[in-house]
Amino acid sequence: MQGTGMKSVGTLLLRLCMLLIAAVLLLQLYFFLQIGWWVDHNPSSTSFMRHRLSELHETVPDAQLQFKWVPYARISNNLKRAIIASEDANFSEHDGVDWDALQQAYEKNTKKGKVVRGGSTITQQLAKNLFLSGERSYLRKGQELVITYMLEFWMDKERIFEIYLNVVEWGNGVFGAEAAAQHYFRTSASNLGASQAARLAVMLPKPRFYDKNRGSAYLSQRTGLILRRMGSAELP
């Protein structure tokens, strides 16, 4: 009887494991097919946008996100160059993950004893924004890498960058280049000047913080540095 009971438990555990594996594979298939759809269809929202809107509704029930999609050609090259210079200098060359940048970030964070540098590429940031949450865990990071390579499989760099520019967070409830240009400078994404673009690029790691602290000394200092780097940024 005891042997039969143990066998039943083993069978149940095996079935549960198989169901879990099947669920994970189905989730990956969903991600893969959804990204394929977005090759020539624009996302109307992302997981991160929905999460932020839910947070805003906790204090302002009728809150709305500032978001307007604009085509790649209608976004200033100044902004494109500034973001590449600030966030991912090797964007046009790597396959989605810049392993050298990750190693450098790890070494710098270890030396400082805290996270001071991320090392994530534009494609990785987009993967997180499209499907995942902002939580930090090895499981989420692993899923982010899988989605990153799916994006690189389906899309060319220009399409990846176009989606990124339109869905990245730029302030409290502010998403995308057009909304950011209007929010901070009362202009369109196509008319952003070099200094305006550099400033927006520097805000990306902590957009809500810089939305509230626009006079930050670091923001001004870093903006000057990115302005000097923009000329060498390679666009996809």
TrEMBL record:
Q: Which residues form a coiled coil?
A: none
User: Which compartment or compartments is the protein found in?
Assistant: Cell inner membrane
MF annotations from Gene Ontology? pentosyltransferase activity; peptidoglycan glycosyltransferase activity
InterPro entries per UniProt:
Glyco_trans_51, Lysozyme-like_dom_sf, PBP_transglycosylase, Pep_trsgly
Superkingdom of the source species: Bacteria
Q: What is its EC number?
A: 2.4.99.28
Record's function text: Peptidoglycan polymerase that catalyzes glycan chain elongation from lipid-linked precursors.
The record's listing under HAMAP family reads: PGT_MtgA
- Family, similarity comment: Belongs to the glycosyltransferase 51 family.
Name of this protein: Biosynthetic peptidoglycan transglycosylase
Recorded name of the encoding gene: mtgA
